[in-house]
Amino acid sequence: MDRTGKCLCGAVHFTIRDLAPEFGACHCKMCQRWSGSAYLSLTVPANAISFGGADNIARYQSSEWAERAWCKKCGSNLWYQVTAEGPHSGSYHMPIGLLDDISGLKMDREIYADAKPDSVTFAGEHQRLDTAATLALFGVAE
Prior knowledge:
The structure is a single chain. By secondary structure, the chain is mostly beta strands. The protein has a single domain, classed as Metal Binding Protein, Guanine Nucleotide Exchange Factor, Chain A. Helix content is 10%, strand content 38%. It has helices spanning 29-35, 131-137, and strands at 3-6, 13-16, 22-26, 39-44, 49-52, 57-63, 66-71, 77-82, 92-95, 106-111, 127-128. It has an 8-stranded mixed β-sheet.
């Protein structure tokens, strides 16, 4: 299914082609600080998305292996992207709230589940990976 989305002010907008309906939650400390809680995001291959308003995008290399981006005008978080070589290199991990239509999405995983606040619990049966399993998933050494 194709989906469109945009930041809060609309300066950055995008179309995702053939979006898989599964999304995940990241509980790492960086995502907690960046999003205010768990970061709920879709995984989008780089070749499946096109952007408008790219001149309004700011980037920050948040670790040795990934960057984060946001809208320069309104500050909306746009993506987390793995920049290091590996199985997820180049893929965008984008907040589900940017989509114009979030119907039909289903959480299928939580990463860094051992770092989640005690007060945050997502219902349902889905994969829950601890820190070591998450780093292995992204092909990063501890």
